[in-house]
Amino acid sequence: MKPIVIIGAGLAGYTVARELRKLDQQTPLTLVTADDGAFYAKPTLSNAFALAKRADQLINQSAAQMASQLKATILTSARAREIDARHKTVVVDGKSLSFSKLVLAVGAQAIQLPIEGDAADQILSINHLQDYARFHEKLAAVKHNGAKRVAILGAGLIGCEFANDLARAGHAVTLIDPNALPLGALAPAALSQGLMAALQKEGVVMRLKNIAERVDVEGDALQVSLSDGSTLIADIVLSAVGLRPSVTLAHTAQLKVGRGIQVDAFGQTSEEDIYALGDCAEYAQPNGTSRMLPYVAPLMGAARAIGRTLGGQVTAIDWQPAPVIVKTPCFPLALIPPPPACPGQWQVTTENDKTVCRYLGANGVIHGFGVAPQDAASRQALAREIGTSLLAAQ
Ligand SMILES: Cc1cc2nc3c(=O)[nH]c(=O)nc-3n(C[C@H](O)[C@H](O)[C@H](O)COP(=O)(O)OP(=O)(O)OC[C@H]3O[C@@H](n4cnc5c(N)ncnc54)[C@H](O)[C@@H]3O)c2cc1C
Predict the structure, then answer these.
(1) Which pLDDT band holds residue 322 (cuts at 50, 70, 90)?
(2) Per CATH, is 112-241 categorized as 3.50.50.60?
(3) Which of 20, 340, 372, 379 is the most exposed place for a label (fewest CB within 10 A)?
(4) 4-109+244-310 falls under which CATH superfamily?
């Protein structure tokens, strides 16, 4: 029997495997991963510095433990390079592997900004456990006396989380972003302002409406030159400017690709028996649009559906509105960003000492929300409001 093959052993790949095994213990299963296959929760990477955790302390299970738990073969340090959709084979490091069904869970890659300077290649980004380990080592090796100076490029979700975490770990953090407010692309201004004030109280220096143009060596440290003509000195520069879905492998199979690998309501790509999910996928939405959703909750929903379908129970992805929790303890915030290019505006109210923002479209339909300080009750109630509002509008 040809195995089901999953490429990628991040949260997406492993969760599909787990869901499949709930229904089917027999079908041979092979996971292929370019990394060491250690299972960890990626969101912990941006709140582990304040807890003084090393990379190895974030690992829940090794690849060998996962292989035994999932009754699977896991090929580690192995890269899939080419898919032949017609003959149902995938080339992994020169060897051809046959599959009955294939799942692409290959994630995304950190965007590299076109920054000049003789130290531009020293800019780090953290999208994997190995990146976290490298950052940790570099930080430990910094010779500067006193607080270590970290410049973060990008005040989006990940940049703000790292800023809060590194500041709490005792580092001197500067946050640089072209927008006028942090979380500019995701959150309403009322919440972005609250987050900015809270981060500043933690000691984070904001250099907004600014772009880093150069990074150069300056003695033992780095000099960052900004678009407003000023410079700052940092021991480490961390880029958190976003991710680009990994689509190279999908192109080799001529799968339909937009920003990500396009999948239908079942998580199936344009080729039968090839599925995709997680940070590499662009999901068809019930309203006929498609969307990247690089967060854990959508990935879990997609994994449940794909796992069941692979196990013989064809299941569509259940698109329950799922809030993103921004892990900034200085300003606990949850939101569901409105879909891109969705016409509407933010309405801001204060309810039970919380700032509640609803994104209202035509006829008062709620397409998104933000709430701070957030807790489970408030974010779940607002998520239910979105569900009810969208249903009523149908
Ligand atoms: C710092 C940080 C904090 C975050 N915090 C949150 C949060 O609080 N809440 C939230 O909802 N989301 C959060 N996210 C996003 C969330 O973690 C991701 O959406 C999710 O982990 C993506 O999982 P994935 O399996 O799709 O991708 P990945 O984890 O990137 O896994 C991809 C896998 O594919 C493998 N691979 C890639 N190409 C190949 C190839 N050609 N051959 C073989 N293997 C290959 C890689 O080795 C890896 O195993 C955060 C992300 C980051 C970076």
Answers:
(1) confident
(2) yes
(3) 340
(4) FAD/NAD(P)-binding domain (3.50.50.60)
